[in-house]
Amino acid sequence: MALLKSCVRSGRNVFSVILRREFHKTAPALVQVTVRDALTQAMDEELERDERVFLLGEEVAQYDGAYKVSRGLWKKYGDKRIIDTPITEMGFAGIAVGSAMAGLRPICEFMTFNFSMQAIDQIINSAAKTSYMSAGLQSVPIVFRGPNGHSAGVAAQHSQCFAAWYGHCPGLKVLSPWSAEDAKGLLKAAIRDDNPVVFLENELLYGVAFEVSEEAQSKDFVLPIGKAKVERQGTRITLVSHSRYVGHCLDAAAVLAKEGIECEVINLRSIRPLDMETIESSVAKTNHLVTVEGGWPQFGVGAEICARIMEGPAFNYLDAPVIRVTGVDIPMPYAKILEDNSVPQIKDIIFSVKKSLNI
């Protein structure tokens, strides 16, 4: 009765007010979660769910991780499940691979994926090839994870993107999350997978907060490996990216929308397997494609997408050549102004979109 009187006095429609109130009651709750916390939650939930899961790496235990991704896990699970290792990537990666072959499910953290080059023999020759060489009799359920790509002010030896490196190798699954929801859902899927998974995080995203749906807050939330996500619908041109540069694409799309150019933005999530079906469907709709990545141009993720578009049915829908936006083909400089000019910026994406559309 009080609601009815209030609506009469204010001239509002009582039914619309009731509907709006009911919608807010039933609307899914969104919370802000950083990528770092999403990764921590994923590992915590999987450690709790399966006693075969354990984490090892440099400073992951007592120090809570170099980037605090394993914060609180050592205190909760102890030395047997959260293991500090010496600074010897080939050694502890080999231990992790052996334990996976023996029936455990290790998460092997590299302080940065640049250091994974020390352990690449274990990752490729031991983990990736074993299932094939054993005719499927021996699985290797292991996750290699850590920060990937360029950071800020760490120069050439700490600023490489390994998406193309590991995406090149059969026997591996390679994931590259952007949002907190990606990070949690994909890491849980990787830990549960019976194959070796390379999980490429981004250091500059760790502290970035994203809205996370009520569904993603569940302990049962898992994202499918090998499935991309359309982050923004559009009709004029398709932008395909992964990791941090999905955000750059969305920012560029927001700017271009003000000029009447509606971009469709695809978040790859998975580098291997690659979801070409989603990309091809988008290209069939927009007739234009720009790929965006932080890695080097030669033999990169964008190069692979371009080749598959040229070889497949989507080629017939293109109204202009595919354009790649990539990092510059040089080792990363240390100076900030040079570093900024060595990786894709929003202006570079906008320029490439207009070039593709001949605007």
TrEMBL record:
Cofactor dependence is on: thiamine diphosphate
Pfam families xref list:
Transket_pyr, Transketolase_C
Query: Primary place of residence?
Result: mitochondrion
Q: What class of enzyme is it?
A: oxidoreductase
Q: Which UniProt keywords apply?
A: Carbohydrate metabolism, Glucose metabolism, Metal-binding, Mitochondrion, Oxidoreductase, Potassium, Pyruvate, Thiamine pyrophosphate, Transit peptide
Catalysed reactions listed for this entry: N(6)-[(R)-lipoyl]-L-lysyl-[protein] + pyruvate + H(+) = N(6)-[(R)-S(8)-acetyldihydrolipoyl]-L-lysyl-[protein] + CO2
Top-level lineage group = Eukaryota
Instruction: Report a single Gene Ontology molecular function.
Output: metal ion binding
The EC number on file is 1.2.4.1
User: Ranges for the Transketolase-like pyrimidine-binding domain?
Assistant: 33-208
User: Can you say where in the cell this protein is located?
Assistant: Mitochondrion
Q: What does this protein do?
A: The pyruvate dehydrogenase complex catalyzes the overall conversion of pyruvate to acetyl-CoA and CO(2), and thereby links the glycolytic pathway to the tricarboxylic cycle. The pyruvate dehydrogenase complex catalyzes the overall conversion of pyruvate to acetyl-CoA and CO2.
Assembly description: Heterotetramer of two PDHA1 and two PDHB subunits. The heterotetramer interacts with DLAT, and is part of the multimeric pyruvate dehydrogenase complex that contains multiple copies of pyruvate dehydrogenase (E1), dihydrolipoamide acetyltransferase (DLAT, E2) and lipoamide dehydrogenase (DLD, E3). These subunits are bound to an inner core composed of about 48 DLAT and 12 PDHX molecules. Interacts with DLAT.
Question: What name does UniProt use for this protein?
Answer: Pyruvate dehydrogenase E1 component subunit beta
Identify the species of origin: Acipenser oxyrinchus oxyrinchus
Encoded by which gene?
A: PDHB
